[in-house]
Amino acid sequence: MVWKNYIKSISEEYFYRDPANDVELALIKEKLNVELPEELLQLFQESNGVFDEYQCPLIWSINRIVEDNLHYRSEEYKGRYMPFDHLLFFSDAGNGDLFGYAILNGVIQTNRIYVWNHEDDSRSCVAPSLKYFIKGWITDEISI
Q1: Which of 4, 18, 99, 111 to pair with 119, CA 20 to 30 A apart?
Q2: CA torsion sign, 20 to 127 to 57 to 4?
């Protein structure tokens, strides 16, 4: 799939950056100890994140993925929430809720996308894949 074309077929309002390079892509494995799922890896090979006209991300950049996931896995959040090392966050709802893939036994085993609700610490599936997440989020079909 050509992700830029797919996203443009839903909305022309998003902008792209240069593709992520090998060093940036290696940061996920190095810092978070997990491989990117193939669909997200392919998107990053086209653009290091997807953003609207206000620079709000639909899909975070690699650096933001690393920074935010490390932040939520820090001591600050332990004891207040269920562990976050079983999720790889890659986007947010703008209200404190975060979207990500589930990590099971150190591996992202399915393409399902989950939302973490920051108010009640629940985690629920919102889309069967990145493709459906992107379409659903842009068209407001995903409600949280």
Answers
A1: 111
A2: positive
**This prediction's pTM:** 0.95
**∠ at Cα 111 (122, 20), nearest 5°?**
105
Q: How far apart are CA 110 and CA 94, in angstroms?
A: 25
The H or E element containing residue 68 is helix 62-72
Residue tagged 């190095």 (tokens): 30
3-state secondary structure of 10: helix
- One-letter amino acid of 127: A
CA torsion through residues 54, 57, 62, 65, sign = positive
Q: Please, are residues 123 and 129 in contact by the beta-carbon 8 Å criterion?
A: no
